[in-house]
Every structure is written in structure tokens, then in C-alpha cells.
Amino acid sequence: MPEDESVSVPVDIDIARVARLARISLTGTELGIYEAQLPVIIDHAARVQALDTAGIEPTSHPLPLANVFRTDSVGDCLDRDEVLSQAPETQDHQFVVPRIMDEA
Amino acid sequence: MTYEAVIGIETHVELSTSSKMFCACPVDTDSEPNTNVCPVCLGLPGALPVMNEKAVEWAMMIGHGLNCEIVGHSVMSRKNYFYPDMPKNYQISQYDLPLCINGHLDIETDEGVRRVGVTRVHMEEDTGKSSHIGGDSGRIQDALYSLIDFNRAGTPLMEIVSEPDMRTPAEARAFVSELREIVLALGVSDAKLEDGSMRFDGNISMRPGGTEGFGVKVEIKNMNSMRSLQQALEYEIERQTELLVDGHEVVQETRHWNEGAGKTESMRSKEEAFDYRYFPEPDLVPLAVDEAWDRRVLAELPELPSQARSRFEDLGLDPEAAALVARGETGPLFAAAVEAGADPKSAANWLTGEVMAWTRRNNTDPAATPLTGKHIAQLSTMQGDGRLSASAAKEVLGWVLAGEGSPEEVAEARDLVQMSDAGELQGIVDYVLAENPEAVAKLAEGDEKVLGYLVGQVMKASGGKADPKLARELLAT
Questions:
Q1: pTM, rounded to two decimals
Q2: Going residue by residue through chain A (104 aa), what tens digit of pLDDT does each one get?
Q3: Which segments of B280-421 does DSSP mark as H helices, in order?
């Protein structure tokens, strides 16, 4: 469910956590660099907060378009062997992935 | 202190459109693994989704079926998380601007009708399917590794979120069951629990009876049938109540229903606590539903189960029979039969009894057989005027369902018509009377018991075709 969307300028950014969420592995040096850079970017974006936006419709998309659809008809799919040739490991025509859950 | 349960249900329904939500791959559960995939549903770089118009209209139909408002301006969003069955590492879903909001569903409970709020109905795409290999009985917790089939990835999926308005497992079950009937009546999904085309999660917390606040809530997953929904909720009520009575706290968590063990189990994911970082999907433009479009969809809305039930009750069925007829695929046949002049009760009996039994035995459904409403009317007329015995009518119906023709034709061709013509039967009765002088003498003395014997003789002499009621009348005079 949507939560309160009001943005306040973050004081602390846990770069390590942000990197984990995005599955980016960063070295200690890189963590330090981004820890310094990211607040600057966020500060810049936060300047929008200062503008008077009363009466301005929220924009979810830059194009002045709505309702771009396709009809419900079936088209061509990819060749399975070609698709699976990209997988590190396969079994029974499926992608093999490491175990998903920890022990309960 | 007594505690009461506060239950909300989140239901996912796969739409049975021909093609997927954002690409032209077929929606087909019977295909070989990884054959219904393309750059879009595999999340290959640069591939762009385009929305399936029918899926949007079907979502609107579900919204109307649940008395929702259809939102004029609605937006698709990216829900970011990593999971092996989701190739893009995000799911296209809806967040702050879902398509349908503020609905409700009335369910029948022991205490009368209860109105359950429907918070929202939103559109999203399904994930791929994983099979867990190794360990004990395919359970995800014990698996050594998993296999992924992306055929299901991108299938249109509706998420239906209820308000926490249910107080007992039975109410939750009634809600899900009515929701399923609606989806089936709308014809937008096959809603098969066993195949996962309809699935539900439960949210449940306990609070002291008579209070209005909310306790700590637990989410329950992996309930694959109406029965497991009820059992899992019953188990959780007992578990949480015990904790609270003993002065412990309930931990907010996701628990997995273990069908075999008959209990819920705490389930921790390797994934970090979820932070979905939603944002508007840049590859899809917004949806604008104007009144004209909404009216068009509304005009195509078929009759809902609650409407069908009250219509059938108006035709003379009691509520139970009306619900039975409305629930099966026999509703249209019932209406046609009554229109063709059949007695409603008799038509309902045939449809919910013999017709359903026959179609189940033959692994088909009533709509796929040649049976018409006229046939049912004819059958009940023939039985009513004595031309068909109960057992002959049943046999005739079987042949009608098998495609041999109308009841009249089948009964004629298979020589199943009862002798219900007094003139025709009189000859046989005379013959039987002549052959059984002792019995006739006893009958004349007022021995009524012997009448049954004589009727039996008439049936025998007629090859089972005599109408026993008529035979009895003729013998008695």
C-alpha cells in the first residue's frame, strides 16, 4: 500500500543497503565515494520541494499519451534452445537457479 | 478475555486471455517449459511492453463484479525486487493509482449477510513457475536448487485486496468462494485453485472481543484450497490466542501453511526486508478510462452469481437449489428449460443431479453436450405424464447427453416409453387377470396385498414398459 509520499531530505544514506537492494557489489572505497556523492544528488532533487506545486497535476509519464494497447492476439515466441543457450545451467529445458530459501 | 480474529484476504487471479499482459506470447498452461517466451516476458534488455487491451477490460469487469469504482486515471508501476522466477528483477504492477477501488462483496454467513470491503483490484503480471528439487517432497525450504519455467511469466494477473472485514475462517472461505463464482461467471479466468490460476494469502490478527483496534498481523501463504484456507486460519487463531493469553506477543511475520503437518511455519527469505522502491513504469503510458469506455464494458457484463440466484429463486427454487444451479455451469440450461415450460424444481433436480453426474463421469461440462433446455422440458413432461418411468427417464437423459437426439426420439428408438395408454395396457391387464384366477379371487375378497403381486405380473408381461400406476388403477377396477 502507498505510504506517505512526502520526501524529506535524508540525513543518512545507508549506501551499503542501497547497493544490496540493487545487487551491486561495491568496494569500501566506492562506498565512501558514493556516500559523499549521493546526498548531493538528492539535495538537488529536493530543491523541487521548494517549488509551489499547488494546482499542478502529478505526472507519471513525460509523453502526452494514454491508452496504448495491443489487441489480444498471439504472436511468435523465441526458439527454446536459443533461449536456454544463454543460461549458465539448465535441466529438463528449464533454468537452474540456486536454492531460494533459508532454513525455516 | 476472549479474542476475536480480524481477517483480510489478498487474492490473485490469472486471466485467461489468449496472449500475455505485455507481449503476444500465448497464455497456455499445457505447453512445454520455456516455449511461450519472448524478449519482453524474459526481460531481455531493450524489449518494450505493450498492454493487452482485453486484459484491461477484464480487470474492469472484475472491478464492476465487486462493486468497485473504476479509476479514470490509472498508472502502471515498477515493483523492484529480486527473485529467480522474475526475469526483469521488477514486476510491472500498480501502486498508488490502481484501476479499481472502493468495492464490496456481500457474503452469506450464519448470522446473515455480511458486507466485506474490497480495497482495490489492480493489474500486474504473473511470475514464472519454479519447481524445487532435492530435499523433502518438493518443499522450497528443503530444496537444493530450483528449476524455472518462464511460460507463466507475464500472464495477466489481478490482485484483489479485501478490507480486514472478516471475523471467522468460515467468512473468509465464503468470501473467497463467492469471489471465485464471480470470476467464473465473468468468464475471465478458469480460477482453478489446484492449478494456481486463483491463489490467496491471508492476513490475520487477534484483538480483544468488542474492541476496534488492530493487533499484530501475520501473513499466511501457501493455502492451495478452500479447505486449507479455513484450516490455516483456524490454526493461526489458536496459535495467536494462546500466545496472547500466555502474555506473549505475536511476531509480525510471513508464515507458510504446511498442509501435511497441519500447521503454519515461520518462513524467512534470503532476501533482505522488502523495499520495493516503486516508481511509475516508464515503458508504459497511463490508462485513461472515460465514461463511454466504462459504459461499454458495463454493458457486456454478464449476470453475476447473486443476480442469478435471486432470478432462480423468483422462478420457484428454494435458496439452496438456486445456489446449486447458479454455481454449476447449468444456469443457462436451467433458464432455457423453464422458458421451454419445464417445472423449475424438476429441471433443477435433473441439472444438478443426473446432468452434473454424467458430465463429471465423462469429463466434460454441460455446455459442451447437445443437451438443450427444450430437452429438459420434454423429459420432465414425459415423466410427468407417465410415459417415462424414473429409471427410464434417467436412461433417456444419458443418451440425450451422448448425442442420440431429443428425449422423444431416444425413448422411441430405444423402446423406453411406458405403456401409459389405458387401451393398450388393458389387453395385458386382462391377460394377467385371466392367468391368475386365485389372486383375482383374493382381490375380490378385499385382499389389497395381492394387488402388488398382480402389478408385478403386468410389468413382467409388458417387458417392464407398463406404467405401474396405471396398471394398478386398471387392476383395481
A1: 0.80
A2: 444 444 444 557 788 888 888 888 999 899 999 988 988 888 888 888 888 888 888 888 888 899 999 999 999 999 999 999 989 999 999 999 998 765 43
A3: 291-299, 305-314, 319-327, 331-339, 344-350, 356-361, 373-384, 390-401, 407-413
Q: Each residue of B211-234: pLDDT tens digit?
A: 998 999 999 998 989 999 999 999
CA distances from B32 to A27, B129, B151, B395, B446 (A): 43, 12, 8, 41, 77
The answer to whether the CB of B118 falls within 8 A of the CB of B163 is yes
A1-52 has which fold? Answer: Histone, subunit A (1.10.20)
**pLDDT tens digit sequence for B375-426:** 999 998 888 887 888 888 999 999 999 999 999 999 888 888 877 677 778 8
A88 part of contact set with chain B, CB < 8 Å: no
* pLDDT at residue B332 greater than cutoff 80: yes
Question: Which residues in chain B have their CB less than 8 angstroms from residue A71's CB?
Answer: 52-54
In B, which residues are within 8 Å of A93 by CB distance? Answer: 32-34, 149
Which ipTM score applies to this complex?
0.82
Distances (CA, A) of A66 to B50, B71, B92, B286, B439: 12, 14, 17, 5, 90
| Domain parsing of chain B, residue ranges | 3-297, 303-413, 422-476
**In chain A, where the domains are located:** 1-52
Q: Are strands B218-223 and B253-258 parallel, antiparallel or unpaired?
A: parallel
The secondary element (H helix, E strand) that includes residue B91 is: strand B90-94
Q: Is the domain B422-476 a CATH 3.10.25.10 member?
A: no
CA pair distance B42, B49, nearest whole angstrom: 11
- Within 8 A of A61 by CB-CB distance, chain B residues are 75, 280, 282, 284-286
